[in-house]
Amino acid sequence: MSSNKTTWINGLDSIRFVLALIVLLSHIHSPFAEALKHSQNVLVHFTGIFMEHLFSGAAAVAGFFIISGFVIHYPNKDKETLDVVPFLVRRLVRIVIPMIVIGMIASHYNQYFALPLWSLYCELAYYILYPILFRIKWSWNTKLYVSYLVCAVFVAVLLGANAGWFRGIHFNGRGPYWQICIIFINLPSWLLGVVLAEHIDKFKGAVTYGKLWLMRGGAQLLAMATVVLRMHYHINYTYSLIICSLFFYKWLEAEIIYHRNHPAGSWSEYLGKFSYSLYLCHLLCLPLVAHFLRLNMYTYVLYIVLPVFISYVACLLIEWPAHALARWLGKRIA
């Protein structure tokens, strides 16, 4: 881990790419899983069922929230004050400009573009809330505990306004209260990242390779459990992920500690640099690919590779220039 608190923590970009890829894979119906499910062989049949529940995009978003809280707070955790205006300009510009530009380009597929925006609205809200929370003199642990109480209140509000939301039965007519509630329901996940940043330098021990993979395996099993709860018991991801985020916190803690002494590969770190573009573009790319290629076992890999490539191009043309503009504006305003 670099001693310069303004630098990116090694390994997090790789994780961001994996999470973005999981979101993409969760939106592609695997032809392999479908074929295996129809096998008469019991083992093969259950392998297909296992594969069908393998990827949870919602769980990946919970991981994104924790990482976001971490990277926002880590450079600021030892500061007495926060330069609010430069901070907000840098954070909002790098998120909003790609969202607007890609949204304009993809206006023909607007119904697809809108699907992942709920989490980005949450991110924007957390960036605005962070300077307010930073000024409150409570410990970040206390702020986290209070956020869970607030989360419980908004869960009750959401259930009272639309009980079908808990069961995942219907989503129509949920109204503007839904996005407001989701912001506060997911706030503890984001603050878990802040708390992780606050305490990570105090951990002096090491994480073994075996323990790291146990944590990764546990995170994957929990993510799959959210899919099972959603698909078979109609328990909305919104609620199951409140619990899962606590384990994801420990998993990401293990990742960061492990990569202090075991740097992640340069390629995986580079791929993570355009994870935001991949998250933003993937649902626009899939109908585009489907227009030219029918999804089957032979084209499945292209349904993965082509959105990744298109997202990389979008990153080069839109996201990274937005980052450069955000840095320039931040320096001009500071």
Question: Secondary-structure blueprint of this entry?
Answer:
Elements: H1 12-26, H2 31-37, H3 42-52, H4 57-73, H5 84-105, H6 110-113, H7 117-135, H8 140-161, H9 164-167, H10 177-199, H11 209-233, H12 237-261, H13 266-271, H14 275-292, H15 300-333
Helix pairs in contact: 1-4, 1-14, 2-3, 4-7, 4-10, 4-12, 5-7, 5-15, 7-10, 8-10, 10-12, 11-12, 14-15
Main sheet specs = none
| Spatial shape | globular
Please give the alpha-carbon distance between the first and last residues.
27 Å
DSSP strand count: 0
Strand content: under 5%
Helix content: over 70%
User: Number of helical segments?
Assistant: 15
Average of per-residue pLDDT values: 90
pLDDT < 50 runs, ≥5 residues: 1-6, 169-173
Radius of gyration: 20 Å
The H/E string reads: HHHHHHHHHHHHHHH
Assign the structural class, choosing from mainly alpha, mainly beta, alpha/beta, alpha+beta, or little secondary structure. mainly alpha
Number of domains: 1
Description of the molecule:
By secondary structure, the chain is an all-alpha fold. It has helices at residues 12-26, 31-37, 42-52, 57-73, 84-105, 110-113, 117-135, 140-161, 164-167, 177-199, 209-233, 237-261, 266-271, 275-292, 300-333. It is globular.
Brief summary:
Residues 10-318 form the Acyltransferase domain. With 334 residues, this protein is mainly alpha-helical.
Provide keyphrases for this structure.
Acyl_transf_3_dom; membrane; Acyltransferase_3; transmembrane; disordered N terminus; Acyltransferase 3 domain-containing protein; 334 residues
